[in-house]
């Protein structure tokens, strides 16, 4: 798996859930399909009068989620920015060309009410529950820095094996200290809760 494959899977899913935060701090989620994909960016269209647009302009932070029929979850976390004015029509027309249904929603010059945003910095997390053991990885979009997540076993480990026995995915291997196979970790926290030596720390 890699970033390119994740973006292609998102494109094939088509309708993505976009999460933002409104001016009261409340979460908001919309399904968006007016999207164009580049190898290293997403461009999407909305109307300037929508609350969604206001939230993007005021804050910019957004998470995008899709779920495939193969039990794959792909989540993009980043910051959306309005495309520069000189390129708005170019990207808008490209999106309308690729998504013909939009001509029914915004016929003719009514599409002028729209604005195109771009996400070209962030991270894309891939999480597959359909394989055993589960598989997860995270990939940078642009030159974003990846924020590590999950759990790590520190040098306080006493080698008792309790964490290994309590791991649902059996992804902890013996050692000094024991090691978590991060690509198979559920991030459930069972190891942390059951460690008698308090040797496990949460990251991120």
UniProtKB/TrEMBL annotation:
Matching Gene3D superfamilies: 3.30.70.20, Electron Transport, Fmn-binding Protein, Chain A
UniProt keyword list: 4Fe-4S, Iron, Iron-sulfur, Metal-binding
A molecular-function term among this protein's GO annotations: metal ion binding
Cofactor or coenzyme needed: [4Fe-4S] cluster
Residues covered by the 4Fe-4S ferredoxin-type domain: 148-177, 178-204
Plastid among keywords: no
Reported function: Ferredoxins are iron-sulfur proteins that transfer electrons in a wide variety of metabolic reactions.
Annotated protein name in UniProt: Ferredoxin
Organism: Hominifimenecus microfluidus
